[in-house]
């Protein structure tokens, strides 16, 4: 109770800070960054959905050039949920146990977090969990594959603009203060790199601070549910209107019997134990819009390819096992929740 009270008090402090001044708003949603591009291997993560770091950088640079057109006031960039897709980060490959098959940068991230010996059996099979410690690890892995994205965000905030993260169902880990601190730390690191030899973009640094310090971090906000300006705008991600993705306690989505575990929805479990494994077989499936096109691609292209390779039976058998695992996990969580009510 004390922990949740402190958390909500901090949320109210942020809401009060946001209400002091009206800003021009920029709103983006559902970017779904995961592990991105691996420079050492020259490949994208099979679970990646966001390939537009450069376009996003041009978008923010354009917005900054337009400030005078809108009265010169700073922007308030609202990332309205699922900015990060933590469900798809750190997924082991080839159906083998991690960390043995984790790529080099994932091993380095594990060592940097000092958790190489802390993986549970489930995490070895399906990737890092949703605890505060593992969520910090996931943030580091996202950064490694999307340094340009973090650099442009840091530059944008350093120019006096504000950044608001609204929590979604795929980045529910933004609930944890440790994850929020990791995001701030990575933005500061990206800022240093952007000003140095590792810059991804040619940016205007005139008048900007040497370091990404407390003044800049105070312009970064993490909201648990929605963004609301009375009489002007109401913004939320929308998972609470979706039966399989909603949280019973969106303001405090923590399991009542484990203060270091999030209350994952059925959709979260389905994604972790089934969809992630499906994408290792059919990486393009989740990038088709609408989703029905992805299913058609699997039926017309993906399965015939596996059949030619002789991997169809083993692949489908593995997926069936993962689906059963997801449903069993959801059942266990539901039963424990029922007992703790």
Polypeptide structure, described:
This protein has 341 residues and is of the alpha/beta class. The chain has two domains: 2-237, no CATH class; 243-341, no CATH class. It is built from eleven helices and eight strands. Strands 1-4-5-6 form a four-stranded parallel sheet, with helices on both faces. It has a two-stranded antiparallel sheet with strand order 2-3. Strand 7 (226-229) and strand 8 form a beta hairpin. Helix 5 runs parallel beside helix 7. It is globular, with a radius of gyration of 21 Å.
Task: Walk me through the topology.
Elements: H1 2-19, E1 24-28, E2 37-38, E3 43-44, H2 53-65, E4 75-80, H3 104-112, H4 121-126, H5 132-145, H6 147-158, E5 162-166, H7 177-194, H8 214-217, E6 220-223, E7 226-229, E8 233-236, H9 266-281, H10 291-309, H11 312-340
Parallel strand pairs: 1-4, 4-5, 5-6
Antiparallel strand pairs: 2-3, 7-8
Give a short overview:
With 341 residues, this protein is α/β, with parallel strands linked by helices. 46% of the residues lie in helices and 9% in strands. The chain has a 4-stranded parallel sheet with strand order 1-4-5-6, sandwiched between helices. Strands 2-3 form a two-stranded antiparallel ribbon.
Got a strand count?
8
Main β-sheet, spatial strand arrangement = 1-4-5-6
Strand-pairing-aware structural class: alpha/beta
The major β-sheet equals: 4 strands, parallel
How many structurally independent domains? 2
Binned strand content: 5-15%
Unreliable residue stretches: 94-102
* H/E topology pattern: HEEEHEHHHHEHHEEEHHH
Radius of gyration: 21 Å
Mean pLDDT: 81
What gap, in angstroms, lies between the N and C termini?
15 Å
Gross morphology is globular
